[in-house]
Amino acid sequence: MPRKSTRTADPAALTELLWSPATSVGRSGVTLAAITAAGVRIGDEERLDGVTMRRVAEAVGVAPMTLYSYVPGRPELLELMLDSVAATTYAGRPKPRDKPDWRAAMEYVSERNWEHALAHPWTVEAPPGRPILGPGVCLKYEDELAAVDGIGLTDQEMDHLITTVIGISASAARWRISLDRIRANSALTDDEWWRLSEPVLSESARGLDLHISTRVGESMSSVGEPHVSMRFGLACLLDGVAKRIAR
What one-character-per-residue DSSP string does 87-102 give? Predict the structure, then answer.
């Protein structure tokens, strides 16, 4: 199961929170669902660093101390947020098992997780950890496993495959998000950056045998292609899985 837990306190209490009805209302009239949704909005707009208990309390119109009566702390809030957005990965879209075969399904899982991470960049900033045990993550995991159930992998291998596919997508998305932010904050285009950097690099590396990396680097047309790299890595992985199944 994908792991994004940041929990530090009572796991039983956190699991209960994750499965609490969205309609449960406290004395302030604010729902846990509204608190979670506010956290997601702030994360989408301000990145993970912007998600603080004080900021979320302001967004829902309660005092920070009141928020703690709903959610023990920021780690638990982040888990609620991650579970909430996980539930939207395939919402209104085909499920992985609807694809014609397991390989097409895994390609679809990869693309949806890539797109989902770009839509919610803070989700790939959250540190990995223990599994999140909420309904959003559990149902997403079920949907993804269903696409490879019965193809010849063991249960553990099914988990490893899903985890690796999502990991490749998350890594590529994190790279793409970082590149986009660097470009947005830079006065230089990628080409301008390279034209300024290349002469200094050539002089500094004089005498080093870098003929392979130089050849490969010159063959690249950009500073990086996260999506292309993701697709290549996924294809290699799925080729290996196909051979494993055929043994």
Answer: TTTTTTS--GGGSSSH
pLDDT of residue 77: 95
Q: Mean pLDDT for the chain?
A: 92
Q: Domains along the chain? A: 11-87 (1.10.10.60), 96-246 (1.10.357.10)
Percent of the chain whose predicted confidence (pLDDT) is above 70: 93
Query: Does the predicted TM-score (pTM) go above 0.70?
Result: yes
Q: Report yes or no: 32 and 17 within 8 Å, Cβ to Cβ.
A: yes
CB 102 within 8 A of CB 151: yes
Q: At residue 127, does pLDDT exceed 90?
A: no
Which amino acid is residue 178, in one-letter code?
S
Torsion sign across C-alpha atoms 126, 128, 132, 136: positive
The burial of 112, by beta-carbon neighbours within 10 Å (0-12 exposed, 13-18 middle, 19 or more buried), is given as: buried
Reply yes or no on whether the pLDDT at 26 is more than 90. Answer: no
Amino acid at 139: L
**What residue has token string 């947020």?**
81
* DSSP secondary structure letter of residue 181: H
Give one DSSP letter per residue of 20-87, joined into a string: S-TT-B-TTS-BHHHHHHHHHHHHHHHTGGG--HHHHHHHHTS-HHHHTTT-SSHHHHHHHHHHHHHT
Tokens standing for residue 37? 């949704």
